[in-house]
Amino acid sequence: MTSEEQKGIGSDRIRGSSAVNVDLLECPICHDLLWIPIACQRCETSFCSACINRWLAANPRKCPNRCKIYIERKCPSFIVKLLAQLQLACYYQSRGCERVIPYEALETHESECDYQPQQCPGCRLEVLKKDFDNHTSGCAAIELTCQECKLVYKRVDAATTHTENICLREQIKENIRQIRQLTLQLHEMRLLLPSITKARITFNDLPMADEKSNFIPDMYRGLEWNKIYYIQRLHLEKNLLKNVHVPSLTASNSPHVALFSGKASISAENVNGIFTFISLTVYGAWNDNMQLLITGHRNSILVSKYTTVVLWCKPQLILLNWRDIDKVILQPLRGTRHPENGATIGKCNRVSQLLDLPDEVLLMICRYLQPVDVLRAFFKSTSDRLHSLILDYRTNLVLSALSYAEFRLVADELLPYLETSQLTLSNSNIPCLVEHFLSLCHQLPLNNLRKLTLNSCTNISSSFVVWLSNQSKLEDLNVYNGDLEVGA
Q1: pLDDT tens across 114-128, in order?
Q2: 64 and 89 together in one domain
Q3: For all residues of the chain together, what is the average pLDDT?
Q4: Which of 121, 176, 175 shows the shortest CA–CA distance to 148?
Q5: Pairing of β 449-454 and β 423-426
Q6: Same-domain status, 289 and 414
Q7: Buried b (16+ CB within 10 A) or exposed e, 405-415
Q8: Pairing status of strand 476-481 against strand 449-454
Q9: Which of these, 26, 75, 92, 485, is most buried using a 10 Å CB contact count?
Q10: How confident is the model at residue 332 (pLDDT cuts 50, 70, 90)?
Q11: Are residues 383 and 411 in the same domain?
Q12: Is residue 142 part of a domain?
């Protein structure tokens, strides 16, 4: 049923389907029109799915028609065809909807209908969906939350409950609370300092990493590390810090920073081993206000849980002091890109980020892009490795769906990057655009063109001949009209 208010679809909602015998389409249980029907295999009587399921819950394996045993089957095809012929008024016609919908589209329409009621969370009045946003934007009873002081108040009380002085006072209260919490943590840290010094992990004894990241060894410092890698701190701060969506574990006197981009874990080395997880220092390397979930486990049972908000480029000390656990899981949940991180949506403007990825990952990225976007994103860089990789991948690019504007872009700006010493050009994948190519060929600066193959040519213009005469490096020309070679 498309609405919780509905009890069934009455035959009075049928519009313009007089040729259909409605009696054949009624459910014998609810006596309304069949909805998502199924049938009994023995008597072939059709029922609404919800109706027969309620019946069977009270009468297990018994058919309402007194068959020996109820066995479910698909609804007979002629019933399905008759239902498909029905045109029905929307359930919300009484609220103003005048749409008449085919039976098969009824559920989709009624779930999205602008005339269905929605309850305002403030005044609790029922408002039509089409008016809901306009109503809530001005409803006096709606609760608002100040982003500065976190005070929750109703819109109507803003002048008295949330004045500037009150907002500042609430912010001061929150700052005092945080200072007290940090003071308590600092006191506990001083008490635990001897044990922290003995067990502190700073990653400074790992092999020196180059500009690429390396996974922390599976077994390191008596613990098992999963999906946590490390990189030089200087390289992260200079290059990746502005482009990588990861939280970072850090220590002030270590040349390395540990990173994890998804769910990562640290476990005891032995099956029955346990350890105490006292604290960690963490910051966001790309996102700001990133929610980080830290959980402690013992024998696969959750025993401790801590959630915090990690800020961009601001190391945060988290004091946990979890004792007798055998596994810690670190999981970043969500965050927002910091406005100063230098990333630009939809543009690949930093090659250093891509060069740290293996070829397999780069090819996987290519498969999620349009062919013209692959060419535009990678060939305008200065990386020979990226050029070589895309040259290998170019054979998999399907260019038949390119628009005329995209074809101009590929031909005019990007094809010269494919090969600096020798360029081969063919329209085998885009024969439908050959006339565009011939009409614009004199504008294409293909200075390195050595071989040209054109398919499905029906005529050759004089401008094309002139253009050919200016291609001093052209060595091999093939022009085809269907299967017939007309020029070489």
Answers
A1: 999 999 999 999 999
A2: yes
A3: 74
A4: 175
A5: parallel
A6: no
A7: ebbbbbbeebb
A8: parallel
A9: 92
A10: confident
A11: no
A12: no
Side chain identity, residue 448:
N
Distance CA 461, CA 466 (A): 9
Task: Specify the pLDDT at position 238.
Answer: 57
* Domain assignment present for 183: no
Evaluate if residue 474 carries a pLDDT over 60: yes
Is 245:267 a contact under the CB 8 Å cutoff?
no
Instruction: Specify whether 351 is located in the same domain as 333.
Output: no
In the prediction, which pLDDT does 175 show? 83
pLDDT of residue 192: 64
- Considering only CA atoms, which of 406, 466, 413 is closest in space to residue 436? 406
The amino acid that residue 120 corresponds to is C
Best CA proximity match to 64, nearest among 78, 46, 76: 46
- Amino acid type, 10: G
Check which CATH number belongs to the domain holding 253 and give it: 2.60.120.1350
In a domain, 450, yes or no: yes
On whether the CB atoms of residues 101 and 93 are closer than 8 A, the answer is: no
Yes or no: say if 327 and 301 are a contact pair by the CB < 8 Å rule: no
Range of the domain at 353: 345-397
Give the Cα separation of 247 and 261 in Å (integer): 7
pLDDT category of residue 335 using cuts at 50, 70 and 90: low
DSSP bridge partners of 259: 229, 248
Stretch (H or E) spanning 480 = strand 476-481
Q: How many CB atoms lie under 10 A from the CB of residue 46? A: 23
The proportion of the chain whose per-residue pLDDT surpasses 70, expressed as a percent, equals 59
The candidate with the shortest Cα–Cα distance to 282, out of 318, 233, 255, 334, is: 318
What is the percentage of the chain residues whose pLDDT exceeds 90? 23
Residues 363 and 464 grouped into a single domain: no
pTM more than 0.90: no
Asked if residue 275 has pLDDT above 50, the reply is yes
User: Residue 18 and residue 24: Cα distance in Å, rounded?
Assistant: 13
Tell me how far apart the alpha carbons of residues 471 and 468 are, in angstroms, rounded to a whole number. 5
Rounded to 5 degrees, what are φ and ψ at 257?
A: -130, 135
Distance CA 291, CA 332 (A): 6
Give the pLDDT band of residue 38 (cuts 50, 70, 90).
Answer: very high
Is the distance from CB of 440 to CB of 427 less than 8 angstroms?
no
Domain count, the chain: 4
Pick from 112, 133, 163: which residue ends a domain?
Answer: 112
The amino acid at 319:
L
Q: Is residue 124 situated within a structural domain?
A: no
Q: How far is CA 410 from CA 14, 325, 384, in A?
A: 55, 58, 19
Sign of the dihedral defined by the CA atoms of residues 30, 35, 38, 39, in that order: positive
Q: Are residues 320 and 204 in the same domain?
A: yes
